User: Fold this.
Amino acid sequence: MNLNYWQGEKIILRAVEKRDLDDILVSRTSDDEMERMISEIPFPVSPEEEREQMAKHTKREPGEDNFFWVITDLEGKTVGFIHAWDCQPRMGTFRYAFGIQQTYRRRGYAQEAARLVLRFYFRELRYQKVTVNIYAFNEVSLRFHRRFGFTEEGRLRRMVFTNGQYYDEIHLGMTREEFDQIDPPQPIPG
Assistant:
């Protein structure tokens, strides 16, 4: 049994480092589909301002469960990111989002990253529910989360205006027990 939560069969999750900032900015601004996977459509900001915002992830305060990981392949090449936020320990709920660079999609990296993060939050930090919000135009992310085992819990109509029209925001969720059905806990050898 592998007790390293941060490495899977195909990927490694690690903290953001200063050397990642330019890569993250370039991948987000050069990949239209990556931008759509992010949970909001931001007002344009300068690269310097966005770099400053991302640099905050390199200085995480101890005791916070909100976290931003860089996803790399086993050779260390950056393939994307995954972010857990809005962590409510008292309620046991959190949200997450991820983005995989276009050249690395459909290789199982997103599924493995989501699985590693959910294992940690459900089985180590004792969270009981994860929620993801996806705009209706992001059909790729909707398909991924439904196949992964998330359940649609609600739809807020006409929540974002982009490309000349309004889109719904779809809320999907998964409980710890539902996650255990698709990823059963492994006994610790003793």
Helices lie at 21-30, 32-37, 47-55, 109-123, 139-148, 176-182. Residues 80 and 100 are 4 Å apart (CA to CA).
